[in-house]
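Quick start: read one record
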Amino acid sequence: MAEGFLMEVCVDSVESAINAERGGAGRLELCSSLLEGGITPSIGLLQVVKQYVRIPVYTMIRPRGGDFLYTDREVEVMRKDIELVRSHGADGLVLGALTEDGRVDAELCMELLAVSRPLPVTFHRAFDMVHDPVVTLETLVSLGFERVLTSGCDCSALEGLPLIKRLVEQAKGRITIMPGGGITERNLQRILEGSGVLEFHCSARSSKDSAMKFRNSCVNMGASLTAPEYGLKVADVSKVRSLNAIAKNTL
């Protein structure tokens, strides 16, 4: 970890988790299906990752892709997932929920935070879909979230940089603002220097070809708009190291 900055890497495999730690990540956000923005990982994935890494592992609690307006049954799943990942070694949690009019579902979040205690909790990028980010930040502070992950309510953290800077100023240390979304070696220094943040979030992934020799190109296991059947995305040690070096040199 670069002194003064903490790099969180989002991962959805054991290989990516190991690579992220090896490259200098200070914390992992563990998910499944990063193609969908990350959903709750399996207990098996959490347990094996915890066997191989020493840095903190924050586990995503998100029952499906799509919006952040949840049904009562989906909330039941979220509660049960929190209980399970807590009992299997998660060091923290990442979650969020909204109302139909684009505000934080404070009642539900309060309930989920109660189930999560004593683990620290990050409010994820549901923040980027809210009606009023300034009001939302105050709600998250009052609820007791440790940090908020945000692209500044824009398509990437670079485009959202002006809002990220304003949120850091508004937070005044009461909650950590962590930029994420499209962070690469090309824009990290500008984001760090322009925002005043102390943490950042990235995937640092590269494409990796499948080891399969026999391939049936006529069949796809998912919908038409999915990752290539014989291609993998894995956290890249060299990319993580490069981002870490940039952060260190930004001090």
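Residues 110 and 143 are 6 Å apart (CA to CA).
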